Amino acid sequence: MDRGMVIFVGALLTFSSSWLGLVLYPYWQLQNEQPYAKSPGDDPYPRPLAGQALAGVRVYQANGCLYCHSQQVRSEKFGNWWEDGQMKTGADIKRGWGARRTVSRDYLYDRPTMLGTMRTGPDLANVGARYAEPWQHNHTFNPRAVNSWSVMPSFAFLYAREKVVGGQKAAKALKLGREWTVDPGYRWRPTDRQWEAILAARGTAIRQAHLAGAVARVDPDSPAGRAELLEFWLTTEEEDYQVVPTTAADALVAYLLALRKGETPLPEAKE
Predict the structure, then answer these.
(1) For a FRET experiment, which of 33, 54, 215, 236 has its CA 20 to 30 Å from that of 26?
(2) Where in the chain is CATH 1.10.760.10?
(3) How far apart are CA 161 and CA 176, in angstroms?
(4) Rg from Cα positions in the chain
(5) Could you tell me the sign of the dihedral formed by the alpha carbons of 170, 175, 178, 181, in that order?
(6) What CATH code would you report for 51-159+247-269?
(7) Among candidate residues 142, 68, 128, the one with its CA nearest the CA of residue 97
(8) Is the pLDDT reported for residue 8 higher than 80?
(9) What's residue 89's pLDDT?
(10) Prediction pTM value
(11) What is the pLDDT of residue 17?
């Protein structure tokens, strides 16, 4: 007996039922979902992105951020940890990644919805509520500048190293020590010959600045003192150069600051 037709019909029914259950029914269920306002005079939530934040969506996509970061705060019933000998749940909420789980309404204006596929890095659904703009720029420029253990790549190519003109740095110049800005993307250390030349040119000024803030004064001419002096100097900002964000970096950070999902209470988000 020829079972080809049976196999074809069975496969058609399988794929059709999957499409109906996973695509058509959710679309029908959510197509009329609207922003939420607790009272008539309240601002609705969510609101569509605009300006730099909207442009930042494209930068976020182009640099593959969604491959290492999710944008979904999981239920309090999801995720375990041990405390006082007992296993508890709700790891995302406990970490402060959002005050509640995210629901479909949180993504009403997201095009596309970037839920993510894994969490090599922390969830970003509510990252705008956790860190201010300077931190976001420093972390994007080089994550090791704020977290020494980070495995996130540096996005230094989104920033420009420029010569300071008129002795005044730009308002948006990154506040980072020269160890991160002399060679953007890497943690710079001068060679012995470079350090000798630097000391010969400006050693007195470096020693005075170091001694002014030092608690324990180490002999600057001893090996330990010279090593301490080097570490101090590397943590100070460059005098003649600055690192400033490009338009793309500003847009990306504006988008990250706009990510505040899981913050506004929603009736359907109750556990």
Answers:
(1) 54
(2) 51-159+247-269
(3) 12
(4) 26
(5) negative
(6) 1.10.760.10
(7) 128
(8) yes
(9) 58
(10) 0.86
(11) 86
Residues 29, 32: Cα–Cα separation, whole Å: 8
Which residue type is seen at 216? A
DSSP line for the chain: ---HHHHHHHHHHHHHHHHIIIIIHHHHHHTT---B-SSTTSPPBS----HHHHHHHHHHHHTTGGGT----PPPTTS-EEEETTEEEE-HHHHTTS-SS---GGGGTT-SS----S--SS---TTGGGTS-HHHHHHHHH-GGGT-TT--PPP-GGGEEEEE-STT---TT-----HHHHTTTTS-----HHHHHHHHHHHHHHHHHHHHHH-SS---TTSHHHHHHHHHHHHTSPPSSEEEEE-HHHHHHHHHHHH--TT-S--GGG--
Helix axes 133-141, 247-258, angle to 10 degrees: 120
Taking the C-alpha atoms of residue 216 and residue 238, their distance in angstroms, rounded to an integer, is: 25
User: What does the mean pLDDT of the chain come to?
Assistant: 89
pLDDT tens, residue by residue, 133-181: 999 999 999 999 999 999 999 999 999 999 998 889 999 999 999 999 9
CA 167 – CA 239 distance, rounded (Å): 8
Q: Is the pLDDT of residue 46 over 90?
A: yes
